[in-house]
Amino acid sequence: MEALLEQIESYRQEMSSYQVANAENLEAFRIKFLGTKGIVKNVMAEMKNVPSERKKEFGQILNAFKIFAEERFETLKESLTSTSQQTYPDIDWSLPGDPIPVGTRHPLSIVRNQMASIFKRLGFAIAEGPEMEDDWHNFTALNLPENHPARDMQDTFYLNQNPDYLLRTHTSSVQARIMEKQKPPIRIICPGRVYRNETISARAHCFFHQLEGLYVDEHVSFADLKQTLYFFVQEMFGKDVKLRFRPSYFPFTEPSAEMDISCTVCGGHGCSLCKYTGWVEILGCGMVHPKMLDNFNIDSNKFTGFAFGMGVERICQLKFRVNDLRLYSQNDVRFLRQFTGAV
């Protein structure tokens, strides 16, 4: 038993003289003395060899040895923490701080928010719907017949057939869902992403963003439509921008029209953007087709309405002169940094 006492004293001296310079040294101390197979564990195991009449005496000695090892470990740990704390030289607090990069919204988000803000001032609420749609809400309810070209798989991303599910080709499907649940008066705008099976190029993409509007109530006329869009154009592009309506055709509106504005780049004199006509087409519009109202049990003899739809990318092109649609989805930081001041 005397040999065990001498061994314990030797271990005490070793622990007392042990120094740590880094975390690896501290971990080595823990493993050697306090680990599962460490010295303290082995010394404590010697208790079984102590005679019964001396167990109480040696129990106190071994317990004190264990406490000493644990306290020495904590002391070394604290000394390592204090020495590892970085000491800073004198700092001149009058110096300017390091610049922090400022993020910005995506240009499409900037323009979409501006467009939505203008229509919200006219009393339009924002409505949203699913990007995966069924045939009824995307086509049939909007007076698009079965043989319409838009239903061709070359133009539309179909996810399933019989029943047909697809990626919505326009946000008009949101209008259909609102009319299905809500009775007039209805005054909404429907911004969102849409998908069409097109070859990606500078002028076309397989997905883009739309903002469509719908107003259904009693005594709504084409004059209301014109005045609403006239207000939007002036707020979006300025008071000097002119606009014109051209007869057109859409299955869900009658009568229908395309709306052009005077080119914001050349001021209507003619340039490559407006193809030297002085006019740029920005949206389609018209009075809601009576059959579309009837599809949702809205009395077409009592209620009328108008609808319009435009591409957010087209408006963004006119606002920021971005001529390549691919730039919007490439996440090129060099391109996005140009809009930091446009938030």
Automatic annotation (TrEMBL):
E.C. number(s) listed in UniProt: 6.1.1.20
Top EC class of this enzyme: ligase
One protein family per Pfam: tRNA-synt_2d
Catalytic reaction annotation: tRNA(Phe) + L-phenylalanine + ATP = L-phenylalanyl-tRNA(Phe) + AMP + diphosphate + H(+)
Main location per the UniProt record: cytoplasm
Localization: Cytoplasm
Keyword terms: Aminoacyl-tRNA synthetase, ATP-binding, Cytoplasm, Ligase, Magnesium, Metal-binding, Nucleotide-binding, Protein biosynthesis
Details of cofactor binding: Binds 2 magnesium ions per tetramer.
Example GO BP: phenylalanyl-tRNA aminoacylation
Aminoacyl-transfer RNA synthetases class-II family profile domain ranges (all copies): 118-315
Matching CDD domains: PheRS_alpha_core (cd00496)
Taxonomic classification: Bacteria, Pseudomonadati, Bacteroidota, Chitinophagia, Chitinophagales
Reported cofactor(s): Mg(2+)
A GO CC term assigned to this protein in UniProt: cytoplasm
Gene3D superfamilies linked: Bira Bifunctional Protein, Domain 2 (3.30.930.10)
Record protein name field: Phenylalanine--tRNA ligase alpha subunit
Origin: domain of life: Bacteria
GO molecular function: ATP binding; magnesium ion binding; phenylalanine-tRNA ligase activity; tRNA binding
